[in-house]
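If you are new to this repository, start here. Below is one unmodified record pulled from the training split, so you can see the exact layout before writing a loader.
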Amino acid sequence: MKKLSRKALILTFALAIVALLFTGLFFIRDRLFTGGNDEANYTYKVVVESKNLTSIYIDSISTAKSSEEYSENFIEIKEGTEILGYTISKDQSFSKYIQLTGPNGVDVLTKKSKQVITHHAYTMMLTGDIIEKTNTATNEVAYEIVNARITYNRIPFVLLSNQNSVCLRNNNSTKEKIINYNDFINALKDVEKRSEMISW
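And here is the target side for that same chain:
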Protein backbone atom coordinates (compact mmCIF):
# COMPACT_ATOMS: atom_id res chain seq x y z
CA MET A 1 0.00 0.00 0.00
CA LYS A 2 1.36 3.37 -1.03
CA LYS A 3 2.17 5.72 1.85
CA LEU A 4 0.61 9.17 1.90
CA SER A 5 2.99 12.03 1.56
CA ARG A 6 3.55 14.42 4.47
CA LYS A 7 1.42 17.11 2.76
CA ALA A 8 -1.39 14.65 2.16
CA LEU A 9 -1.34 13.58 5.83
CA ILE A 10 -1.50 17.19 6.99
CA LEU A 11 -4.35 17.91 4.57
CA THR A 12 -6.28 14.82 5.72
CA PHE A 13 -5.75 15.77 9.37
CA ALA A 14 -6.91 19.35 8.70
CA LEU A 15 -10.03 18.12 6.89
CA ALA A 16 -10.83 15.81 9.82
CA ILE A 17 -10.55 18.72 12.29
CA VAL A 18 -12.79 20.93 10.10
CA ALA A 19 -15.35 18.09 9.87
CA LEU A 20 -15.30 17.72 13.66
CA LEU A 21 -15.80 21.46 14.14
CA PHE A 22 -18.78 21.57 11.78
CA THR A 23 -20.30 18.53 13.49
CA GLY A 24 -19.87 20.20 16.88
CA LEU A 25 -21.39 23.44 15.66
CA PHE A 26 -24.37 21.56 14.26
CA PHE A 27 -25.16 20.04 17.67
CA ILE A 28 -24.59 23.20 19.71
CA ARG A 29 -25.89 25.82 17.29
CA ASP A 30 -29.04 26.36 19.39
CA ARG A 31 -26.93 27.03 22.46
CA LEU A 32 -24.71 29.44 20.58
CA PHE A 33 -27.42 31.43 18.81
CA THR A 34 -30.51 31.16 21.03
CA GLY A 35 -29.02 30.92 24.49
CA GLY A 36 -29.14 27.15 24.90
CA ASN A 37 -31.63 24.35 24.85
CA ASP A 38 -32.18 24.70 28.60
CA GLU A 39 -33.71 28.17 28.17
CA ALA A 40 -37.27 28.00 29.42
CA ASN A 41 -40.25 28.31 27.11
CA TYR A 42 -43.38 29.83 28.60
CA THR A 43 -47.09 29.88 28.00
CA TYR A 44 -48.97 33.03 28.97
CA LYS A 45 -52.46 33.75 30.24
CA VAL A 46 -54.02 37.04 31.34
CA VAL A 47 -55.64 36.44 34.73
CA VAL A 48 -56.42 40.07 35.64
CA GLU A 49 -57.20 42.62 32.95
CA SER A 50 -57.35 46.43 33.21
CA LYS A 51 -57.83 46.58 36.97
CA ASN A 52 -56.70 49.02 39.65
CA LEU A 53 -53.80 47.10 41.20
CA THR A 54 -52.34 49.28 43.93
CA SER A 55 -52.34 52.84 45.22
CA ILE A 56 -49.68 54.84 47.02
CA TYR A 57 -49.51 58.17 48.83
CA ILE A 58 -46.66 60.40 47.64
CA ASP A 59 -46.66 63.47 49.87
CA SER A 60 -48.62 66.44 51.12
CA ILE A 61 -47.23 69.62 49.56
CA SER A 62 -47.59 73.01 51.22
CA THR A 63 -47.04 76.36 49.52
CA ALA A 64 -43.50 76.40 50.90
CA LYS A 65 -42.71 72.93 49.48
CA SER A 66 -44.19 73.66 46.05
CA SER A 67 -41.86 72.84 43.18
CA GLU A 68 -41.66 73.98 39.57
CA GLU A 69 -39.64 70.88 38.68
CA TYR A 70 -41.03 67.52 37.62
CA SER A 71 -39.90 64.65 39.83
CA GLU A 72 -39.93 60.93 39.10
CA ASN A 73 -42.21 59.09 41.49
CA PHE A 74 -42.18 55.32 41.81
CA ILE A 75 -44.59 52.53 42.59
CA GLU A 76 -42.51 49.57 43.76
CA ILE A 77 -44.03 46.09 43.77
CA LYS A 78 -41.95 43.66 45.78
CA GLU A 79 -41.66 39.93 45.08
CA GLY A 80 -44.27 38.10 47.14
CA THR A 81 -46.81 40.97 47.13
CA GLU A 82 -50.35 39.66 46.80
CA ILE A 83 -52.61 41.60 44.43
CA LEU A 84 -56.20 40.53 43.70
CA GLY A 85 -55.42 37.00 44.87
CA TYR A 86 -52.17 36.56 42.87
CA THR A 87 -48.67 36.62 44.35
CA ILE A 88 -46.27 38.66 42.21
CA SER A 89 -43.17 36.59 41.44
CA LYS A 90 -40.50 39.28 41.04
CA ASP A 91 -39.70 42.86 42.00
CA GLN A 92 -41.25 45.36 39.59
CA SER A 93 -40.97 49.14 39.42
CA PHE A 94 -43.15 51.70 37.64
CA SER A 95 -42.68 55.47 37.53
CA LYS A 96 -44.38 58.70 36.55
CA TYR A 97 -43.08 62.26 36.37
CA ILE A 98 -45.25 64.70 38.33
CA GLN A 99 -44.92 68.36 39.21
CA LEU A 100 -45.64 68.49 42.94
CA THR A 101 -47.14 71.93 43.42
CA GLY A 102 -48.65 73.32 46.58
CA PRO A 103 -51.63 75.68 46.87
CA ASN A 104 -51.27 79.33 45.94
CA GLY A 105 -52.17 80.57 49.42
CA VAL A 106 -55.34 82.27 48.16
CA ASP A 107 -57.79 79.59 46.97
CA VAL A 108 -60.41 78.55 49.51
CA LEU A 109 -61.73 75.05 50.16
CA THR A 110 -65.36 76.07 49.59
CA LYS A 111 -67.02 79.46 49.28
CA LYS A 112 -69.15 78.62 52.29
CA SER A 113 -66.25 77.91 54.65
CA LYS A 114 -63.72 80.32 53.13
CA GLN A 115 -60.91 78.25 54.65
CA VAL A 116 -57.71 78.78 52.68
CA ILE A 117 -56.28 75.55 51.25
CA THR A 118 -53.01 74.72 53.04
CA HIS A 119 -51.83 71.58 51.20
CA HIS A 120 -52.22 69.39 48.13
CA ALA A 121 -52.03 65.64 48.76
CA TYR A 122 -50.68 63.54 45.89
CA THR A 123 -51.55 59.91 45.31
CA MET A 124 -50.81 57.52 42.43
CA MET A 125 -52.79 54.53 41.16
CA LEU A 126 -51.28 51.64 39.20
CA THR A 127 -53.68 50.09 36.68
CA GLY A 128 -52.88 47.15 34.42
CA ASP A 129 -52.97 43.42 33.79
CA ILE A 130 -51.55 40.43 35.64
CA ILE A 131 -50.27 37.56 33.53
CA GLU A 132 -49.68 33.95 34.49
CA LYS A 133 -46.42 32.57 33.04
CA THR A 134 -46.03 28.80 33.02
CA ASN A 135 -42.65 27.19 32.39
CA THR A 136 -43.45 24.40 29.91
CA ALA A 137 -40.48 22.32 31.05
CA THR A 138 -41.00 22.51 34.83
CA ASN A 139 -44.67 23.61 35.05
CA GLU A 140 -43.52 26.36 37.41
CA VAL A 141 -46.03 29.24 37.49
CA ALA A 142 -45.16 32.92 37.93
CA TYR A 143 -47.25 36.09 38.01
CA GLU A 144 -46.20 39.49 36.64
CA ILE A 145 -47.78 42.90 36.08
CA VAL A 146 -47.87 44.00 32.42
CA ASN A 147 -49.48 46.75 30.32
CA ALA A 148 -49.32 49.00 33.39
CA ARG A 149 -50.02 52.72 33.55
CA ILE A 150 -50.03 55.24 36.39
CA THR A 151 -52.60 57.95 37.04
CA TYR A 152 -52.41 60.46 39.86
CA ASN A 153 -54.67 62.75 41.85
CA ARG A 154 -54.03 66.05 43.58
CA ILE A 155 -56.34 66.57 46.55
CA PRO A 156 -56.65 70.03 48.13
CA PHE A 157 -57.16 70.09 51.89
CA VAL A 158 -56.86 72.25 54.98
CA LEU A 159 -54.59 70.98 57.73
CA LEU A 160 -56.38 72.05 60.89
CA SER A 161 -54.61 73.77 63.74
CA ASN A 162 -54.35 70.64 65.88
CA GLN A 163 -52.31 68.98 63.05
CA ASN A 164 -54.28 65.75 63.63
CA SER A 165 -57.21 66.46 61.34
CA VAL A 166 -57.82 67.65 57.80
CA CYS A 167 -60.79 69.28 56.13
CA LEU A 168 -61.69 68.03 52.64
CA ARG A 169 -64.19 69.19 50.04
CA ASN A 170 -66.42 67.18 47.74
CA ASN A 171 -66.12 67.13 43.95
CA ASN A 172 -68.50 70.05 43.54
CA SER A 173 -66.69 72.15 46.15
CA THR A 174 -70.02 72.61 47.95
CA LYS A 175 -69.54 70.44 51.04
CA GLU A 176 -66.69 69.68 53.40
CA LYS A 177 -65.84 67.08 55.99
CA ILE A 178 -63.26 66.71 58.73
CA ILE A 179 -61.36 63.46 59.15
CA ASN A 180 -58.31 62.23 61.04
CA TYR A 181 -55.09 63.03 59.20
CA ASN A 182 -53.65 59.49 59.51
CA ASP A 183 -56.93 57.96 58.33
CA PHE A 184 -56.81 60.27 55.31
CA ILE A 185 -53.25 59.24 54.39
CA ASN A 186 -53.93 55.52 54.95
CA ALA A 187 -57.02 55.68 52.73
CA LEU A 188 -54.89 57.02 49.86
CA LYS A 189 -52.77 53.85 50.10
CA ASP A 190 -55.81 51.58 49.69
CA VAL A 191 -57.37 50.96 46.27
CA GLU A 192 -60.96 50.81 47.54
CA LYS A 193 -60.83 53.49 50.24
CA ARG A 194 -58.92 55.85 47.97
CA SER A 195 -61.81 56.28 45.53
CA GLU A 196 -64.18 57.07 48.41
CA MET A 197 -61.73 59.64 49.77
CA ILE A 198 -61.28 61.36 46.41
CA SER A 199 -64.86 61.26 45.15
CA TRP A 200 -67.74 62.09 47.47
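Two things worth knowing about this chain: The longest strand covers residues 42-62. Residues 51 and 127 are 5 Å apart (CA to CA).
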